[in-house]
């Protein structure tokens, strides 16, 4: 069954904010093998002009996953069968570094749904802001819904 294209443009604001913790940043950096001292040591981060440890750019996936049950993937009216989904691509546009102590809000929206052969591509954009409303990052993600594109009508041969 095809995904509901009427959802293009729909927004899903997170119900609460995400508080970035110092130990979360350090744990995430260790998990991905990031050895940058600014992600582990407060003094190293401050020596570079940061107020606290700096989160690796992909740390923002944690924010997205924290609110997954409030986003389009969890909206039954969208018609997305998550058991048929694979992750297509992800991009991060950083407007400023994320630091321990940041309080982040997020709004996820569906920006496109289109066919790619027998599959459908569901493109989402997440805008992340700090407590003052300043832009922190824009995340874009493409989910591939396997085999759910509407069948194409067969071409009818012209009569001579």
Please state the CA-atom Rg, rounded to the nearest Å. 20 Å
How far the N terminus sits from the C terminus, by CA atoms, comes to 37 Å
Strand content: 25-35%
Oligomeric organization of the protein chains: single chain
Question: So how many helices?
Answer: 3
Quick one: CATH superfamily of the domain at 5-20 and 55-145? Hotdog Thioesterase
Biggest sheet architecture: 6 strands, antiparallel
Helicity, as a percent range: 10-25%
CATH topology of the domain at 5-20 and 55-145: Thiol Ester Dehydrase, Chain A
Pattern of helices and strands: EEHHHEEEE
> What would you call the structural class?
alpha+beta
- Number of separate strands: 6
Under CATH at level 1, the class of the domain at 5-20 and 55-145 stands as: Alpha Beta
Overall shape: elongated
Low-confidence stretches are none
Write down the overall mean pLDDT: 94
Q: In the CATH hierarchy, what is the architecture of the domain at 5-20 and 55-145 at level 2?
A: Roll
Task: Provide an overview of this structure.
- It is a single chain.
- The protein has 160 residues and is an alpha+beta fold.
- It has a domain at 5-20 and 55-145: Roll (Thiol Ester Dehydrase, Chain A).
- It contains three helices and six strands; from the N terminus they run E-E-H-H-H-E-E-E-E.
- Strands 1, 2, 3, 4, 5 and 6 form a six-stranded antiparallel beta sheet that branches.
- Strand 4 (103-116) and strand 5 form a beta hairpin.
- The chain starts with 10 loop residues before the first strand and ends in a 15-residue tail after the last strand.
């Amino acid at each position: 069954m095809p995904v509901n294209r009427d959802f293009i443009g729909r927004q899903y604001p997170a119900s609460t904010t995400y508080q970035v913790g110092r130990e979360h940043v350090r744990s995430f950096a260790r998990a991905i093998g990031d050895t940058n001292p600014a992600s582990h040591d407060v003094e190293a981060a401050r020596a570079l002009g940061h107020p606290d440890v700096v989160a690796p750019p992909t740390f923002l996936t944690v924010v997205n996953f924290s609110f997954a049950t409030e986003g389009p993937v969890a909206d039954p009216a969208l018609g997305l069968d998550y058991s048929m989904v694979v992750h297509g691509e992800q991009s991060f546009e950083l407007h400023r570094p994320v630091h321990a102590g940041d309080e982040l809000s997020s709004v996820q929206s569906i920006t496109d749904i289109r066919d790619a052969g027998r599959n459908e591509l569901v493109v989402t954009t997440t805008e992340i802001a700090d407590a003052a409303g300043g832009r922190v990052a824009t995340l874009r993600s493409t989910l591939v819904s396997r085999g759910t594109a509407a069948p194409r009508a067969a071409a009818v041969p012209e009569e001579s």
